[in-house]
Amino acid sequence: MARRTGILGGGALGLTLAYRLAAAGDQVTVVEREPEPGGLAAGFRVGPSWLEKFYHHLFRSDRAATALIEEVGLGHRLVWPRPVTSTLYNGRIRQFDSPLSLLRYRPLPLPDRLRMAAVLAYLKLEKSHTRLEGKTADQWLRTWMGARGYQMQWEPLLKSKFHDHYSSVALPWFWSRVHLRSSQLGYIRGGFQNLYNRLAELVGERGGDLRFGQSVTGIAGLPGGGVRVCVDNTEMSFDRVVSTLPTRLTIALTQGLPDDYRARHDWGQALGAHCVILELHRRLLDTTYWLNINDPGYPFLALVEHTNYMPLEDYDGRYLIYLGNYLPMDHPLFRQGKDEVLAAFLPHLRRINPNFREEWVTGAHIFAAPYAQPVVTPEYREHIPPHTTPIRDLYLANMFQVYPQDRGQNYSIAMAERLARRLTAKE
User: Nearest Cα to 275, choosing from 395, 141, 355, 366?
Assistant: First the structure.
């Protein structure tokens, strides 16, 4: 008799796991709160394509995601452009995305450029983060890169991303950002939603039950083994359950967890993601895809011009701009309506491009998600839960367990592959 497996969450991790376990013969049920698959990588329609609600791309080191895309028949859509990443500093946009662009970065004196290049080269070549444990990025970079280079380039980015927590971010987190990234960025033409739609289709073809638009409201172990899950007003029983929901949310939903488990793992801070997407009738930036905002006074930390990365014709000629933020989940921005947000954001686009006019905007969308950015401190790794939980037959797998990385489609897919091998080996 097929094992009944419940998977809570239909993002990259949950769908990849469902795909593998369904192929191994499990009777799989996926429960996802949103109406479509994909989780934080889900998209919405813009012309003939899907556009992610929160900007996404792959790096050349993202082998698990690349292999899965090839396996499910979407490899012909995977492209690897080399878009431009720049920094806004003192009111000017300057390219900053390669050793050569660093050496040409004139706001920083040449000795400081060389020192920064040496530090970044070390982090790129260092194969393991273990020697960097126990240190913060703020203190280590300030010491080795020098105060001037750090304060000009990296401190503003850490502050805008982590706010009051910036000085406590672990150095291994910063190492992973340098070590694993590539200048070429991968993207599925037509949007990553195509991958998640395809995975959902394949799970369905293997007999899986996909329940989108439904919320988990409770989890409890059963006396003789197995797990009961409350989905809206319905109780469902499974031989085993894998929760891909955030650790804190899983703990809040689960009955019977010991106090010491809760104290150890219901821990730490996470920020919510907030993204404004603008449709324009003309280009905002000349060539830059990703613009880090290092000047003070802006209400967003990055401006991403997606159509300086993907072709304009993929979106019926619409120029697409992301204005992204990571914020405490009680931040007022999460409660503001579209008109109020646009009134606060749009004047700043004219600071970046003096020719910008609000009439350029032909459409706007706002998306928000909780628990999108963990605050990875030096103590973080001590609080990462194992996949097994004190509840028999309940497993936990989410992006909070991909340390020293903190999120990303590839790391979720890789974790799903490892967990699927482990679960099928036990059968």
Answer: 366
**Alpha helices (H) along 222-313:** 247-253, 259-265
The number of C-alpha atoms within 13 Å of 120 and in the hemisphere containing its C-beta is 20
- Bridge-partner residues for 205, per DSSP? none
To which CATH superfamily is domain 4-43+62-76+190-268+378-425 assigned?
FAD/NAD(P)-binding domain (3.50.50.60)
What 3-state class would DSSP assign to 339? Answer: helix
CA 274 centroid distance within chain: 12
- Token look-up 């949310």 returns 249
Q: What are phi and psi of 282, to 5 degrees?
A: -155, 165
Give 89's contacts (C-beta < 8 A, 6+ positions apart). Answer: 107, 152, 153, 294, 295
DSSP β-bridge partners for residue 323: 276, 303
Q: What value, to the nearest 5°, has the Cα angle with vertex 31 and ends 421 and 248?
A: 80
Q: Of 64, 83, 71, 77, give the one whose Cα is nearest residue 13.
A: 64
Instruction: Find the helix or strand (DSSP H, E) in which 303 lies.
Output: strand 302-305
What is the C-alpha to C-alpha distance for residues 7 and 5, in angstroms, rounded to an integer? Answer: 7
Q: Is residue 296 reached through a cis peptide bond, with omega within 30 degrees of 0 on the bond before it?
A: no
Write down the domain spans for the chain. 4-43+62-76+190-268+378-425, 99-174
pLDDT tens-digit profile of 24-76? 999 999 999 999 999 999 999 999 999 999 999 999 999 999 999 999 999 99
Are 275 and 43 in contact by the 8 Å Cβ rule? The answer is no
Cα-to-chain-centroid distance, residue 218: 26
pTM exceeding the 0.85 threshold for the entire prediction: yes
73: which residues sit within 8 A by CB, 6+ positions away? Answer: 198
pLDDT tens string 211-248? 999 999 999 999 999 999 999 989 999 999 999 999 99
Helix (H) or strand (E) segment spanning residue 103: helix 99-103
